[in-house]
Amino acid sequence: MKSITIHGCFDPIATYEKLQDKSLLGEFSFIYENKEIFCIGFRPRCEIRLQNDQWILKRRDAPLEEIPSKSPFCELRHIVKKLGNEWSLFGYISFDVSKYCYNYANTSNLPLIEFIQPGVQILFYSDRCQIMSNNPECYANYLVTASREPQESVDIIECDLSDVKDKEKFIEKVCRSQKLIAQDIAKKIIISRTKHYELHLRPSELYSHYRHLNKSSSNFLLEYSGRKIIGCSPEVLLSSDSERVSTNLLAGTRPRDIDPMRDQYLRSELLSDEKEVYEHALSVLAAYGEMKIFCLPEKVHVDRFMEIKEYSGVRHIFSRLTGVYQEGKDMFDALQTLFPAITVSGVPKDVAIKHIREIENTSRALYAGVVGYLDSDERCEFPIAIRCIFSEEKNHYYIQAGAGIMRASNPLNEFN
């Protein structure tokens, strides 16, 4: 691919919408941003998809390949070797990939894994942008200069889960989980619930509004053949280069409050709540054990422990673990071990996942999986698909949220 740099201050979301209005994005496109990059990509050179226990590898310059699947992360390692020396992939891994490791029944028809290698990438910086494609000059005219005017707010409904009609059903699920915990079958189980909405807004409008409300580690919009994920995730399951790896954990939550004194009280209460502190410490201990499977045991460290991370509507207890890969181990081994996150499944993970499927009685699909990228330099970043809006058909969206159920959980508090 060729690359050109254009100096100036540009609006990436307005540029994305302009390309979409001109039908230039095609069937697969994405926006991905973190503290270091703001990238849009489209017109894939390659599509990689896992569906119905079959990998599909579709490349512009090669015949379609279909590969049976039994161990997805190991197989993905071999599939990317077919892409040459330089590549980057963006996409998602569904929670239901768990079925391969934890005998988790999947009833969803969605692809379990879906990545694209974009044929066009546009990287935005504060004073320039970089366009990479076979013909980058043809996309330069679609760059939209950033406006100095304040952004127009989007008229959007409040996504309040407190009005869910099945309150009794959710509380019953919490009680079922607590019975398992009381019997020492599990120590922690994350149970989720869903709310559906009809919204006549384009996904990029939702994304623009949502990212301004939620200052998170990673923000993303994926539009993959009718499937849409709009997310502002505060929790990164895996961030890695060729040597070092880290995983973040958020467990323990309190709301924010507009009254400063009340807000400070809620912050202090979070760190003194026995249930929340124990839940967090349990998650850190379990993640520490997982990291030692693919990292040098003496190089695994909890370098940040029980800090408070504050966002627009909530605050969480946060910890980070880092490590150095064992010889012969890589990001695929890390994914194999860490996925799905302890903080969206439970402890022990295998037991929790089994009972999640029984208690929720539905496949989670995209929720609680990961969204992100990996590349040929052995770098990757995979935020967990929480704080997300999902859609599988036009104008129909849903959100999903989970609660960490412990022995000391109050069912009504978990619902609220």
What does this 3D model show about the protein?
It is a single chain. This protein has 416 residues and is an alpha+beta fold. 26% of the residues lie in helices and 36% in strands. It contains 10 helices and 20 strands. It has helices at residues 12-21, 72-80, 99-102, 167-182, 203-213, 260-272, 274-294, 331-338, 349-360, 411-415, and strands at residues 2-7, 28-33, 38-51, 54-59, 65-68, 88-93, 113-124, 128-133, 188-198, 218-224, 227-233, 236-240, 244-255, 301-310, 314-324, 346-347, 370-375, 380-383, 388-393, 396-405. The chain has a 20-stranded antiparallel sheet that branches. α2 (72-80) runs antiparallel to α8 (331-338) and α7 runs antiparallel to α8 (331-338). The longest helix has 21 residues, at 274-294. It is globular and about 60 Å long. The relative contact order is 0.18. The model has no long low-confidence stretch (mean pLDDT 92).
Q: Regarding quaternary structure, how should these chains be classified?
A: single chain
Number of contiguous helices: 10
Structural class: alpha+beta
Sheet with the most strands, sense and barrel status: 20 strands, antiparallel
Spatial extent as radius of gyration: 21 Å
The low-pLDDT segments are: none
Portion in beta strands: 35-45%
Give the total of beta strands.
20
Gap between N and C termini, in Å? 51 Å
Quick check: average pLDDT?
92
Give the helix proportion (percent range): 25-40%
Shape: globular
Q: What letter string, H or E per element, gives the SSE order?
A: EHEEEEHEHEEHEHEEEEHHEEHEHEEEEH
